[in-house]
Amino acid sequence: MKRPNFIAEQARNARGPVGRIVAFIMARETWAQNQRSMAALDVRNGETVVDVGCGHGRSLAALSEMTPDGLVVGVDPSELMAEIAARRVRSLIRAGRADVAVASVEKLPFVDGSFDKALCVHVLYFWPDLGPALAEIARVLKLGGRLALLFRTSASPATASFPPEIYRFRSLGEVTAALADAGLEVQETTDIGDCVLFTAERRRATA
User: Fold this and answer.
1) Which CATH architecture has domain 5-202?
2) pLDDT 10s per residue in the chain (207 long)?
């Protein structure tokens, strides 16, 4: 059964009471995949980490436990999701260990080389163009910095239940090529259920 468009739209840009309900559901239904993706980052204490498309912010607290002397930052285009995430980690924000920003992936509000690690789970479907999005993530990563990118490919049967007007599923080849163009070299590919988890490292300066 295909998801209704209004629910899918809330996943892309949550708003209002329905958005709060969607955030509550998302915090639970994808948690195991978030945990696998965070583990793949191999976060070390003192490192800086950005969660691009952080949504409800549940991963921010878990990432902060991995780097108690570092900084974890969540970014989401939805003001509602950013509000929910900031409330979830408000004690970490007060302690200077976390922050949350409202921004699109194409315009991340950070200087070049700000982060050691970057996390992206189930968000690339909402990017109009992979190139600018991945180039921007590469820009804010340090050389040698690592990205964990989890997504469903266009080959997954599960994609039939998502409205194509809102979700755009790419092939494995498309994502691999876009990563390479952004200067991100795939180090490992892992199948997690009907999803793929890439870990990639920034190997060259972006243009």
Assistant:
1) 3-Layer(aba) Sandwich (3.40)
2) 555 554 555 565 555 555 555 555 665 668 899 999 999 999 999 999 999 999 889 999 999 999 999 999 999 999 999 999 999 999 999 999 999 999 999 999 999 999 999 999 999 999 999 999 999 999 999 999 999 999 999 999 888 877 788 889 999 999 999 999 999 999 999 999 889 999 999 987 655
pTM of the predicted structure, to 2 decimals: 0.88
Burial 73-103 (b: 16+ CB within 10 A, else e): bbbbbbebbbbbbbebbeebbeeebbbbbbe
DSSP 158: G
Contacts (Cβ under 8 Å, ≥6 apart) of 1: 161
Residue 17 tokens read as 């009471």
| Structure tokens that stand for 185 in this block | 């070299």
3-state SS string over 88-151?
Answer: HCHHHHHCCCEEEEECCHHHCCCCCCCEEEEEEECCHHHCCCHHHHHHHHHHHEEEEEEEEEEE
Contact present, 124 and 170 (Cβ < 8 Å):
yes
Residue type, 96: G
Structure tokens that stand for 47 in this block: 């490192």
Give, as one character, the DSSP assignment of residue 52. E
